[in-house]
Specification:
mainly beta, STM4215-like, Immunoglobulin-like, eight-stranded antiparallel β-sheet, six-stranded mixed β-sheet, 3 helices
């Protein structure tokens, strides 16, 4: 799984910087270098052969601006890191304060300046592929106090260097998220009581027009009541995200509309949070919108079917298994959506998946349990979340 690779993110950033510098300067005619090393800025024991740049990661700091920013609403925040580096140049005599070393250092600064934003991909750098933002490279002051503090000691020498930082670097938690089954759903009886399963009232907004949606987490085909004032006026319609819908009934303090089943084709909206406005068409052709409220359009998970489930050790009845699980439903997400599937047993999630094979109409997901990371035999409930919204139904699957 891609998030599990983020534990190698610190080394991946260093390797990315190393390859960028060597790729740009290894064949430069003015001041070529023969390698980019990683470690403390010290001359090699056998100096005189390879002019080089050295990268020294001298500090790892937790990003205070992102301390409480979570990847999934309601779940613990990951570690967001700021990596601080020193870049030091050495000439072919092992000196860092010669004219040749200064030339190499200047060329290195030029390469880093051009790499203001680092954009690794999951294919080339798996450990950084899930980083939700570009990695920002920013130069910092490398004062004499900083360099003296880092290079102190009887055998250390002051070496002119350049300091810079890279942020934000994501390191996701190793523990599975604490999803749970929804309260009020009769999973054993196989019935879902609709909006009564979970009801979270919406507080009144600051706007004067609409104050509440009921339910505020609808599925396709459900009728939604909008409460507020002046909802009996003519030429009113409802905007759900980018979709304009007609009202099915109107009163001064409430209006109803239906989330159309046509959204199930998967080409217009995805599950997740969408703004809801009541919009009035004005005589001059303009439109006036109310204040917005958020509606959580839910995915619908109808079935979970195991496929090709096989034990790792066929002769062992207790052997863990691998294979695939096919999920069928509505608005199950696209490759661009944030989709998580958890296998729930007992009172906790035993395995979390975030990589799938998607169908074009959002009606099918296929997750793979690799043979290299099998799961214990047993009966599980499948929990699906798309863009932060959990499906009401969690079907059982036997592995």
């Amino acid at each position: 799984m891609a998030l599990a690779d983020s534990g190698r993110a610190i080394g991946a950033v260093t390797q990315l910087l190393q390859s960028r510098l060597f790729g740009a300067l290894g064949s430069l005619p003015q001041a070529p270098i023969q390698e980019v090393t990683v470690g403390r800025p010290e001359p090699k024991p056998t100096a005189g052969t390879k002019p080089r740049l050295n990268l020294f990661l001298y500090e790892v700091e937790f990003d205070g601006h992102l301390m409480n920013v979570s990847l999934d609403a309601g779940q613990p925040a990951p570690a967001w890191l700021v990596l601080r580096y020193l870049m030091t140049a050495f000439d072919n005599e092992g000196e860092s304060d010669s004219t040749r070393a200064h030339e190499i250092l200047g060329q290195g600064i030029r390469v880093l300046q051009a790499s203001n934003f680092l954009s690794p991909t999951a294919q080339t750098t798996p450990a950084l592929g899930d980083n939700p933002d570009l990695l920002k490279l920013t130069f910092e002051d490398a004062s004499s106090e900083l360099l003296s503090r880092l290079m102190q000691g009887s055998d250390e020498r002051y070496r002119c260097s350049v300091a810079f930082q890279v942020r934000p670097v994501l390191v996701a938690p190793a523990e599975p998220p604490s999803y749970s089954l929804l309260v009020g759903v009769d999973y054993l009886g196989g019935t879902v009581p609709g909006e009564d399963a979970v009801h979270v009232p919406v507080l009144a907004s600051l706007g004067p027009e609409i104050t509440r949606l009921d339910p505020d987490t609808p599925e396709t085909g459900e009728e939604v009541t909008v409460e507020g004032i002046d909802l009996h006026l003519g030429a009113l319609s409802v905007l759900l995200g980018s979709e304009r819908l007609g009202a099915t009934s109107q009163k001064p303090d409430r209006l109803t509309f239906r989330v159309p089943s046509s959204l199930e084709d998967g080409t217009r909206l995805s599950a997740g949070s969408h703004a809801v406005y009541v919009e009035q068409a004005l005589p001059a052709g303009r439109r006036r919108k109310s204040n917005p409220l958020l509606a959580g359009l839910l995915p619908r998970l109808d079935a979970a079917t195991p496929a090709g489930i096989q034990p790792v050790q066929p002769a062992n009845p207790a052997s863990p298994v691998h294979g695939a699980i096919t999920l069928d439903g509505v608005l199950l997400g696209t490759a661009e959506d944030e989709v998580y599937v958890g296998l729930f047993r007992g009172d906790r999630i035993l395995r979390l998946f975030d990589a799938f094979t998607h169908s074009g109409d959002q009606k099918q997901l296929t997750l793979t349990i690799p043979a290299a990371s099998p799961i214990a035999r047993g009966d599980y409930r499948v929990i699906l979340r798309v863009n932060g919204r959990q499906a009401r139904n969690s079907p059982a699957v036997s592995l």
